[in-house]
What does this fold into?
Amino acid sequence: MFSKWMSRATLGALTLAATMGIASAKSTITVGMQLEPPHLDPTSAAAGAIDSVLYANVFEGLTRFGPDGSVNPGLAESWEISEDGLTYTFKLREGVKFHDGTDMNAEDVKFSLDRARAEDSVNAQKALFEGIKDIEVVDPLTVKVTLSKPNGSFLFNMAWGDAVIVAPESIDGIKEKPVGTGAFVFESWLQGDRIELAKNAEYWGEPAKLEHVTFKFISDPTAAFASVMAEDVDVFTAFPAPENLPQFEADPRFQVLVGSTEGETILSTNNKMPPFDNVKVREALAHAIDRQAIIDGAMFGYGTPIGTHFAPHNPDYVDLTGMNAYDPEKAKALLAEAGYPDGFKTTLKLPPPSYARRGGEIIAAQLAAVGIEAEITNMEWGLWLELVFSNKDYGLTIVSHTEPMDIGIYARPDYYFQYDSAEAQGLMAKLSETTDPAARSGILKEMQELIAKDYVNGYLFQLAALTVAKAGVQGLWANAPTQATDLTAVSWVD
Amino acid sequence: MKGLWLGAILVSVFVGAALLSLVWVPYDIIQMNMAQRLQGPSWPHPLGTDHYGRDMLSMIMLGARTSIAVALVAVGIGMGLGVPLGLTAAARRGGWIDEIVMRGNDLIFAFPSLLIAILITAIFGASAVNAIIAIGIFNIPVFARLVRGGALSLWTRDYILAARVAGKGRARISIEHILPNLTNLLIVQGTIQFSLGILAEAGLSYVGLGAQPPVPSWGRMLADTQTMYSIALHLALVPGLSILLTVLGLNLMGDGLRDLLDPRVRRAAR
It folds into this structure.
């Protein structure tokens, strides 16, 4: 009974606050997104939707990504790197508290990193922590990380959502009730519908400008369009129907942000499955595909053609689109050379996003033109993860790899596209030991050329970050350097 | 009679389009042309183009073929299995065969038809063939019941009694005397089930459980372009009206045929 009264009182207060909020500047926001997180622990699942809700808002790491992809100080105020590049001494911020009131200190950092790199860790990006040899608590605000070999991307690695700092006190319930250090406190999760966050009044840094945040999950593109049009949501990130953007642009109620993402959208090819084990066949695929037609047809022009697995906005990007220019005649000749003059039959298994479903239809038509019959099977994410990603039971599929700097997947022979190249593995090993920026850049370029030359996958386009927001919202990230919806700087124009 | 004619015209337009598509369509729909996409109706493309620049008229013609093929085979399955079951049940009225057949029918009827279809496609995967099986299965009890009901009233007739006295077996009577008298009933019901089959096929492919791309299907044409209706209305109107007009035509035809063929209705009309 008491709790009922309490909830009524809170409800009243909230309603009051909301009414008052409209009178002055609005301080609540509703963010729509397509995918709902499976649970709320960013350190134990690959699902990007978890980071989309919680990264920077609820959880923070030692370092954090800025809107431009730069690596900035996070919970670590500063750091010192030893001469040999093996020891990182992080100075932590003072007075940082977890949302449950406990202090964030060096012990928590040690706990988090040890947990992530442990033998039985379920962290989806264990490779980020591989080089760590030892973590030492010097004093409550100083932590010393020793690496087994120099790692030029260590600070970058620590900024990932998979490397956020969690507390041993709250780790057990983290999947349902995430406790972090961020500017927003997790409030509630109504499964299948919404997650609510509230402002953290005791935040260590610049406090959030918004009092209350609601993430609403709307998977159907038509419903997404309707929800924005009806102003049920204030912001929709990764808007799933690019064909509707011109309408929003023309409407003074809305603004459309078009930015870059780390999402290389590729025609993943099962490199171990005949005939795709023949590089000539893969090269033929590359020439059979008209990238611009896919970008126009599937994304209504939003997207940048790529020729390798690397983000075009990255300074180390090499433009290799010329290597796989659209040339169906050449594709046919290559197929004949490879021993398939009449083409062959294969499978094209497509996950739900529209870039995959529409892109798949277009690619199937383009492949048919050179004699390759790709049988389309549409599947839900769960089935796709099981059949394609885990069991590697596919010929071709389309998916966007949204992790930043993920060219390292080409050094993993057991990864779902099964590219096994000693040269690629050697390059990536060399990269992780190199700290000199110029040398790193050189290796990255070499790697890009190698996978383009081996035609590992069909490189299609870089996914664009498409955000629709009400005209009065400011401070949103236009680009998506990592999967995140950082709302800490978002506010309404008065 | 007007209804029958209107229905027959509508149906023959779509059946004609489907038949024509076997030998000729205005454009090859495998070829996509992004430069031509989302065009409204024009002379070269009387029904406009879709989001891949494919000719909508060609898509509708090929889609009609899918719809009609699926519905026709599904009704065939329903009749092929439902009619013998119904005849047997009526011939053995009150026996255990009758009981099994009718309770089996009740079981299938108890599930909403679309649910059965979703169940089947969920187990065996989405394809036109599975859509046919799914729609066919829920056609079985429709025909079984219809035939049993019709046959039961016929079994009490004097000429059936005469046939029995003449020494004909139940099976022979069913085939030689009962079935011919049910033909009209079956034609009418078949037409109506055919229209329901077209609707079911459109519904299944709309939710992604029918024919898979690149096989064109009216339902999927609607689903694929849902987010584009606000910029190109013809994407909704063309397949939507095709479904509507075909189903309307079949229903009008079904009603008209009943007026024409069913003696009871004919008597009442006079």
